[in-house]
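Usage example:
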Amino acid sequence: MVESSISSSSSSYTYLTDCKSSFQIHNILPPSSNPLTLTLNHFLLLLLLLFSPFIAFFFVNLKLGTPSPIFILPWSLLLLLKLLLGNPIHKESVILMPAFGVQIETHYTRGRVSRRFIAVDKILKPVLLECVTPATCYWNLSLIVQGEQQLISVFKVLRPPAKMLVPIWKALCAVTTDNDKEEESSKENCRG
Amino acid sequence: MWFVNRKILKRLCCIIFDAMYAEKVNSMMGEQKERFRILMVSDFFYPNFGGVENHIYYLAQCLIKLGHKVVVMTHAYGNRSGVRYMTGGLKVYYIPWTPFVMQNTLPTFYGTLPIIRTILVREKISLVHGHQAFSTLCHEALMHARTMGYKAVFTDHSLYGFSDVGSIHMNKVLQFTLADVTQAICVSHTSKENTVLRSGLLPEKVFVIPNAVDTAMFKPAAKRLSRDEIVIVVISRLVYRKGADLLVEVIPEVCRLYPFVRFIVGGDGPKRVRLEEMREKHSLQDRVEMLGAVPHAQVRSVLVSGHIFLNSSLTEAFCIAILEAASCGLLTVSTRVGGVPEVLPDDMIVLAEPDPGDMVHAIKKAISILPMIDPQVMHNRMKGLYDWHDVAKRTEIVYDRALKCTNQSLLERLSRYLSCGSWAGKLFCLVMIIDFLLWRLLQLWQPAERIEEVPDFTMFHDEDCSRP
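Running the assembly step on the lines above writes:
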């Protein structure tokens, strides 16, 4: 595996590529948690655990009945735990198979992997976009796929910087253009 | 005799000195013309159409032509959200904040801080330019920009009262925003007076730069219209502020006095019902044509079908509609309100008090001088009088002055806010302290180094900047 980490900073993403086999694998690993963020998260969690009896008492006093805190509290705690205890993603990968297609993978920390394969003839164009949310802006690598109403995001959860996305975008462009050339040559052969 | 000669000599010396100074400034500008990176912020932008929207668009295009980087930030319009590119590589951020009331985003004070900070850092912005006092996004952006130490320029496009509740509140908000703004721009001298009175801003900090018109889009008809029937055109939103109630009284009287006069009324609004009722009451269906809402692309075709343009506004900082009409070769009849008397030369406009009798008299006068009006000559004059390139160059001077201003510490800035009022001053200080603390927290959470800077996208084009 050829490692090409873009930044040495602990807060940055890690980009790994493997081009040994006939197809290319591009991996993006999430940033290791910032010590400050981790400390803050654990502090908030501790506060939550300390105040949970008071929250339960508040629910009972509001005449919501005893079942409501029993049902509400564990779920709210679980939700907050999920939010506070970092990223559930281990890595996100793109496997480029020339003449076949592209496989997008999301590897979760618990071992679950979600995969999606897109045939090369269905990919119209890979695009590098700037996305805007109410709070931030980030770069996103997407695919314009035939028959799909919306763009298909290559990295569904992670938001790697543009300098990591550019080589992947170039590789995707190469895969799709190679396929177009093959199609054109086959059409010419048919005409011949 | 000697006194006259001395006066002439003094005048000549002044002219020579001015010329030398201008040459020196130009040579200095040639040596080190700074490329500004401007973020224009307003709730009002394309796909909406209006004075503010047009101003931002054309000014941005001409500034790009002058070699500056311009980015526009506005809220999302329906499906139009995210980053879009317009003519000349103008980059627009449509932030996915839904409009709250009158195309304005909900005022949150601090909700927009993360996104504004991200845009300012990633676009390497040097100056923030906010447009329109109505825009909440503009006020918030200017507030955050000053907190982060960026220079801020504000353009006021409207006039406000002093007595009603809405105006009192708006003036306090404006006072808060302008207390720490680097420079301000107004579209007319009347607007400048109004802004200075409302906000307590130093007059030397306020510049007057009028709007302009895209004369290429508003050309007169190729064939001159017959004067057998005189057509008076009205294009405006049919609301109280635009004097729709005046029209209800003026139109029947003019139709009674002149049987050869016909009206074309373009626009929509709550007062349309009153105009329809007037038309029915006086049986003027054949003489008053109601077009309803007119798309911006069709305004010119409506204007060129008339001889006189009638503007009945009760308040106006600068009426762009008058410029568009004059560019199409129409003689204008308008109410003498706000900045309207500053817009056109006396021979191109007939002014009247916002009173039905005076308006009718002004229309009479306009009909009498109509044979002396040549639409093509009027259009050519407008070409020379109002040009977006000139507006951009004048705005460039304001930016230059703003960037030369010294940076002030938080304490110095807070002292300005304290002078805004006994209790309001303290409240403003509290708002700014919280904003400063939140900004510092954001810097810890996500340092500026982690925000990726955007590569510049430049388009080389030779076409006129004023063409969309």
